[in-house]
Every structure is written in C-alpha cells, then in structure tokens.
Amino acid sequence: MQKRSRLVSDCAAPNGPIVAVTPGTTYTSVASYQAGSAGRRVRTGLTWFTAQGAVISKQSSANAATVDATTGWMTSSFSAVAPANAASVQVTVLVDSLLVGEVHLVDRIGLVTGSSTEAWTDPAAPTGPTLYQVVAYRSGDGENSAVAGVTVQ
Asked: Could you count the other beta carbons within 10 Å of the beta carbon of residue 14?
C-alpha cells in the first residue's frame, strides 16, 4: 500500500477544505506527525472563518509533550467550540521551531463534530443487521489490513 503523507516545510499550514460549521458546536481537529530527522513539538489546531471568509481566530493545542520522532507517529488533537459568528473552519497543522531543510510528514488529518476522534456513528442509522466493510490500521508498520466484513445487529 502506498502511503500518502503531506510534507510540511513551514511552521504552520492550513490543511484540507474549509468546512461549514454550526456556532456553539464542538469540533475536533486531529493529525499524526513523523519527523524526517530532528523531532519537534507538533500541534493541531482550528482556524475559524466568518460567512464572508474573514479569519475570526486561529486556535491550537498548547500541549508541549507532543514531539514527533523518526521512529513512529505522534498524534495531536484539539477541540474547541465554534464561535457565535463562525460559518466555517479549517484544520491547521503546526511544527514548532522548524529549521530550514527539515522534513516532517503529516498524515491522518481529520475534523470531527464533538470531541471523540475514535468513534463513528452511521449517519443512515440502519434498522436490523447491517454489513460494514472494515479496514484496520496496523501500528507497527503503518499498513492497513485486508478489508473484512462485519455485521452489526
């Protein structure tokens, strides 16, 4: 399987689409980072926009313990409530104290409503047994499993 990680060469970069939000609702951004050489503090954040596209604010995790390494992936997440005048949001990835020429990979970038990045709810809310196709991520080598069918009653 081919990995598709984003290469970060500046200290803060918006990533992904700008997504519509509901003011007063909690949103969580998440991303995983891996250093190409020197480990750095890595953080994930949210940039809020008005309906006219103006930036309201940029917020990010203040966690000093999220330092990436060359030997594995470090995951950072950040949750915040959408401001009253927010119409949309964009995930921001940050690598602190980045030096010219350093390489850091960013992968598994996501945005969810609420604060749980590990849960999933079927939006169709089926009744009765439903077959889902599931792929598991293997943490040792970063590869995915074969597709398996799981029936939920």
From this structure: 13
The conformation of residue 47, written as its DSSP 8-state character, comes to: E
Domain 6-116, CATH among 2.60.120.260, 2.60.40.1190, 2.40.10.10, 3.40.50.300: 2.60.120.260
Give the gyration radius of the chain's Cα atoms.
Answer: 17
Read off the pLDDT of residues 58-90 as tens digits, 9 standing for 90 and up: 998 888 888 898 888 888 889 999 999 999 999
For residue 134, the tally of other CB atoms under 10 A from its CB is: 10
Largest Cα–Cα separation, the chain = 56
What pLDDT was estimated at residue 132?
64
Residues 6 and 75 sit within 8 Å (Cβ to Cβ): no
Domain ranges of the chain: 6-116
Q: How far apart are CA 119 and CA 63, in angstroms?
A: 22
Q: What DSSP line would sit under 49-91, residue for residue?
A: E-TTS-EEEEEE---TT-B--SSS-EEEEEEEEPPTT--EEEE
Give the burial class of 42: count Cβ atoms within 10 A of its Cβ; 0-12 exposed, 13-18 middle, 19 or more buried: buried
